[in-house]
Design brief:
single chain, 645 residues, alpha/beta, Rossmann fold, GMP Synthetase, Chain A, domain 3, eight-stranded mixed β-sheet, seven-stranded mixed β-sheet, globular, binds 5'-O-[(S)-ethoxy(hydroxy)phosphoryl]adenosine
């Protein structure tokens, strides 16, 4: 598991200590928070919850009937109230909540007061369309302020949202709408991407042909493209907003009421609807956001993720806004119109905290330091990364050229399911080791265990697990408690399995090695091998397919597919491209395989299980591992020879 990664890590053994100046001003300066949380975990989380505004206080911090947790039992609150209303009492009402930067350089600033108005009005629009507490709403939007407004409006009236990343295909959108049985879909006339327009509304129309639950579609005008509006079903956002009343009282939600569903890939073809609730999630994301990014009132915080992913939910919308932060939101890509776009934005808004992904950093490395060097990055003071293991080389580059050797880097490990960051340094306290996400957050119990669920000694590797429930944990898989229990708690009773492999070192630092299940991490995005395989098999020429994640210099991993064609079908010119396009159409461009390789047979065990490990060896040109369990060992030998040709 991830041996290649470990080799790379051994070469870099420098330790970076917090600078004295940084330490002196840090949000958390004393290591005793770890001991306090360790000795009274629930007391720690009880105290953390006081940071929120509750309509009614909770009676009990945790009710734990493994694997079902209830946090802050009996407490009542509203997430949108916590993100907006409570900041209006004082000077913060005129503070920038969202600074939006459009792809074309257009800019829009929403103060907390502005945000209040927009969210309230949109909540009233939803209500006028019959959306009630508990109804699901699907959001399929670009990175524009309306995405955050829509999420917060749903939270305000207690309607769980399901945000679907704008890069997903019509079919992927349809499946997610159907699984959630959404009543309303919010989309836009299109989304800008490198100067052209992605037809989101057209995708939505295709999706809706097979999604009967949706009664209304609300369309935000962003690109001005011509779109078809279905009479009686489709409504323009701006027209509805004009009519909407300005006050919409926040719904009193139970701490355990659902806040949102977010779909993520797992080891089967069907994406899982990860369910997050209100109280624990809000406590978890706001506490971690303040402590890990060392948030100050005057910070300008920019997380470059899309709101369609968990990082956007927790660390663009709910965590930062609950903390009254100023959040930069950027619509476009890092290379449009030029490769210094990110650094131009840092310079323009004097960004102080930047949170991005290793794949982006490796892309910047490839482009060379001249782009960041041409801009003033002196405002930056904290850097973060998330989504996949960061290789030490990229860490050092980030530290040198972006942080100018001045900014601590917080490498944050977490998942859609964990809701909040679980492992990361506290930048005023923790010594940094490039490539390690360092140690668990106070009050979080992470371990590396062996096959039997027993902790491994320091210096060894195994499976990464979480020992104790945590506030922002997922509560279930939407509509499928069995799958929740099986997937996450089925290996060892009472222990949450992350799906990752990891090592912890002599100092107790964690080194995440990557997924040990059939999930591929492409540019920080989780893609199930089974999803890509079923998309391939859906093509009329394909009999069988096996996908693997192959190491990739920039993306971390890339999808490689081994495909067996149907009897009588010959390979032909263009078939590879056709299959790649087919996957993109079924799932979205992010799942498009880099390589497709045709083979007469796939290596299988006697019980018929495809040996993906061997395929990975072949694709990465390594010596073949153990082949003794194969039904027919010659298959893999032939395959290897063919592949090398
Ligand atoms: C990987 C993203 C190493 C890991 C927030 C995890 C990481 C999966 C890190 C979750 C990190 C995320 N170091 N690996 N700092 N952060 N991962 O659900 O494999 O999109 O299980 O959540 O990304 O991906 P997800």
């Amino acid at each position: 598991m991830g041996e290649e990664r470990l080799e790379g890590l051994l070469e870099e053994n420098r330790v970076f200590k917090p600078g004295a100046e940084f330490q002196a001003q840090a949000a958390v300066q004393e290591g005793k928070v770890y001991e306090e949380a360790e000795s009274d975990r629930l007391g720690f989380w009880g105290k953390a919850a006081e940071r929120l505004s509750w309509f009614r206080p909770w009676e009990k911090v945790l009710e734990w009937e493994p694997p079902f947790a209830q946090w802050y039992v009996g407490g009542k609150l509203n997430a949108s109230y916590n993100c907006i209303d409570r900041h209006l009492a004082g000077w913060r009402r005129n503070k920038a909540a969202i600074i939006f930067e459009g792809e074309h350089g257009d800019s829009r600033v929403l103060t907390y007061q502005n945000l209040y108005r927009e969210v309230n009005k949109f909540a009233n629009v939803l209500k006028s369309l019959g959306v009630e507490k508990g109804d699901r709403v699907t959001i399929y939007l670009p990175m524009i302020p309306e995405a955050a407004i829509a999420m917060l409006a749903c939270a305000r009236i207690g309607a769980p949202h399901s945000v679907v990343f704008g890069g997903f295909s019509a079919e992927a959108l349809r499946d997610r709408i159907n699984d959630a049985q959404a009543k309303v879909l919010i989309t836009s006339d299109g989304s800008f991407r490198r100067g052209s327009v992605v037809p989101l509304k057209e995708n939505a129309d295709t999706a809706l042909a097979g999604a009967g639950s949706v009664e209304h579609v609300i369309v935000v005008q962003r690109t001005g493209s011509e779109v078809h509006m279905q009479e009686g079903r489709d409504l323009w956002y701006h027209e509805q907003m004009q009519k909407a009343a300005v006050e919409c009282p926040p719904e009193e939600m139970d701490a355990e009421d659902m806040l949102f569903i977010l779909y993520t890939s797992g080891t089967t073809g069907k994406p899982k609807g990860v369910v997050h609730t209100t109280g624990g999630y809000m406590v978890g994301v706001s506490t971690t956001h303040e402590w890990i990014f060392d948030l100050k009132e005057e910070d300008v915080y920019w997380c470059t993720a899309d709101v369609g992913w968990i990082t956007g939910h927790s660390y663009i919308v709910y965590g930062p806004l609950a903390n009254g932060a100023t959040v930069v939101m950027y619509e476009g890509t890092p290379d449009y119109p030029a490769k210094d776009r990110f650094w131009e934005i840092v310079e323009k808004y004097r960004v102080t905290i930047l949170y991005t992904a290793p794949t982006a950093i490796r892309t910047f490395m490839k482009w060379g330091p001249s782009y960041p060097e041409s801009r003033d990055l002196s405002s930056l003071r904290v850097l973060g990364t998330v989504g996949e293991p960061i290789n030490p080389e990229a860490w050092i580059w980030y530290h040198t050229y972006i942080g100018r050797e001045r900014c601590p880097i917080v490498d944050t490990w977490w998942q859609t399911e964990t809701g909040m960051i679980m492992m990361a340094p506290l930048p005023g306290l923790t010594d940094l080791k490039p490539g390690s996400c360092t140690v668990p957050f106070p009050g979080v119990k992470v371990e590396v265990v062996d096959h039997d669920g027993q902790p491994v000694p320091k210096g060894s590797g195994g499976y990464l697990v979480v020992r104790e429930p945590w506030p922002a944990m997922l509560r279930t898989v939407y509509g499928d408690n069995d799958r929740y229990v099986q997937t996450y708690w089925g290996n060892w009773p009472g222990i949450y399995f992350t799906g990752d492999g990891a090592k912890w070192d002599q100092d107790g630092y964690f080194w995440v090695l990557g997924r040990v299940d059939d999930v591929i991490n492409v540019s920080g995005h989780r893609i199930g091998t089974a999803e890509v395989e079923s998309a391939l098999v859906d093509h009329p020429a394909v009999a069988e397919a096996a996908c693997i994640g192959k190491n990739h210099e920039v993306k971390g991993q890339a999808v490689a597919a081994f495909v067996t064609l149907k009897e009588g079908v010959e390979t032909r010119n263009g078939l590879v491209d056709e299959l790649k396009a087919h996957v993109a159409k079924k799932i979205g461009a992010l799942a498009r395989p880099d390589d497709i390789f045709f083979t007469a047979e796939l290596p299988k065990t006697r019980s018929g299980k495809i040996m993906r490990r061997l395929l990975r060896d072949i694709a990465e040109g390594r010596a073949l591992g153990d082949t003794t369990t194969l039904a027919d060992a010659s298959v893999v030998q032939t395959l290897k020879e063919q592949y090398q040709e």
